[in-house]
Every structure is written in C-alpha cells, then in structure tokens.
Amino acid sequence: MVVRAIGPSLSEAGVANPLQDSMLELHNDNGAVIASNDNWQDAQAAQITASGLAPSDQREAAIFATLPAGNYTAVVRGAHDTAGVALVEVYSVGQ
Fold it and tell me: 4, 18, 42, 82: which could form a disulfide with 78 (CB 3.0–4.6 Å)?
C-alpha cells in the first residue's frame, strides 16, 4: 500500500491554508509507530515512484508498506509544529 499526506499541492486545487510541510506516521492497532516519513523523496522514493503515486511536492510525505490485514491509523502533523489543511490518501497497490 501507499499512504500519502498531501499538503502543499492542495493550494493548486484552491484549498485555503494548506499544510506547508506534512509529516506522516503509520501506527498499528496497538498504537505503535511502524513507519514514518517527512519528505517523501528521503526514503522509499523508488518504490513510491514506481507505484505511480509519487506526491507532486517534495515536502509532502508518503509511505510504501506491505502490511498484513488489520487496523492501522495514519497521523499527519506539520513539520516544526506548523498547522494547516492536509489530505490523507491510502492506496492499495499490486505487487
């Protein structure tokens, strides 16, 4: 799967006050952080790009993960305690 936290590129869609630098955490059903990302190109860039789901802005966050069935929570924060509007997207991708 690919989980994305879109912020800066929302301004292109007319969204007011978009989060300028999104950070993403993926938690398991016990609340433990199992993956995190700040700028999507810093980690897993090859897998995310190959999925066709690379964010359009390097400040946006994304995680590529192979997960067993279960419950997960995505948490989005602004880098440096910033605030704004963000969009969380979850995609199932084939292997």
Answer: 82
